[in-house]
Amino acid sequence: MNDNPDRRRLLHAGLALGIAAMAPRARACEFMTSTLRVTHPWTRATGHDATSTVLCMGFDEVSETDRLILVETPIATSAEMGGALARPEVDFLIPQGEETYLDDSGTFVRLLGLTQPLQLGRSYPLRLGFEKGGVFNTTVSVDFGRFR
Known about the structure:
By secondary structure, this protein is mostly beta strands. Helix content is 12%, strand content 41%. It has one helix and ten strands. The protein has one helix at residues 5-22, and strands at 30-32, 37-43, 52-60, 66-72, 78-83, 92-94, 100-102, 107-112, 123-130, 134-142. Strands 1, 2, 3, 4, 5, 6, 7, 8, 9 and 10 form a ten-stranded mixed β-sheet that branches. It is globular. The termini are far apart.
């Protein structure tokens, strides 16, 4: 019997790729509150002279209508709503049973008074507060773009 090692490696690689393709896609950075799931809080890298940045994230599995009312992070002095629902405070309605996004193409949170440049690939502490779901600590990732 002639056993070809190249053929065996090729079969093993194909099997590994097939298993990887069947595995469910992992979602980056998911956090649960008592009323909803927060998916992937992220922002883009900034330059040394940047004073603000856009914070994006998704909300789903919303069991009860809630409201995002607090965003705190040591990388910024304050936060406000930007985009379509711009206002000087954080106040974002998250309806029950719907997927909702804070996203730079619509409504988003703007982090103001950046305390340092944000570096690609880094994560920074983030504290989110919800009217019904409570306050919890998480992280914001510095990424290239959307993760819907």
